[in-house]
Design a protein that fits this description.
By secondary structure, the chain is mostly helical. Belongs to the bacterial flagellin family.
Length: about 140
């Protein structure tokens, strides 16, 4: 069901230096023939490129914007990871359900085979007893 689908997540170190130094989260390259759903490339800068400065009110306000952008980046990444986790949990639940159904089907098949063998044995026993009675 999931053939040719790729799920790749690259997470760079999420510390202040990376958030404010230009390193961001980037989408992993897709495998050949696979589709990437819901994976968006990192922005051109990848992070916040200039340092934080709070020496003046104007610089502090600009820094607040940078901090809000960094928080938004982290929040977006957490949302993406949560979506991936939900998808994996859903696939696991479906797989567990399929395994349970296969085990139940296998047990029913084994019961049917056993029933066939009992019927064959009983038929042979009746035929043998009938033949002995005729002799």
């Amino acid at each position: 069901a999931n053939q040719d689908e790729a799920l790749a997540v690259n997470i760079f170190s999420t510390n202040v230096a990376n958030l404010f130094g230009g390193e961001g989260v980037q989408a992993a390259p897709a495998q050949e023939g696979a589709q990437q759903e819901g994976v968006q490339p990192a922005p051109a800068q990848g992070g916040i490129s200039s340092p934080i400065n709070v020496t003046t009110a104007i610089d502090a306000n600009a820094s607040l914007t940078k901090i809000e952008d960094a928080i938004r980046m982290v929040t977006d990444q957490r949302a993406n990871l949560g979506a991936f986790q939900n998808r994996l949990e859903s696939v696991k639940a479906s797989t567990d359900y399929a395994i349970e159904n296969l085990k139940a089907s296998y047990a029913q098949i084994k019961d049917a085979i056993m029933t066939d063998e009992i019927v064959a044995s009983t038929t042979n026993s009746i035929l043998t007893q009938s033949a002995m009675a005729m002799i």
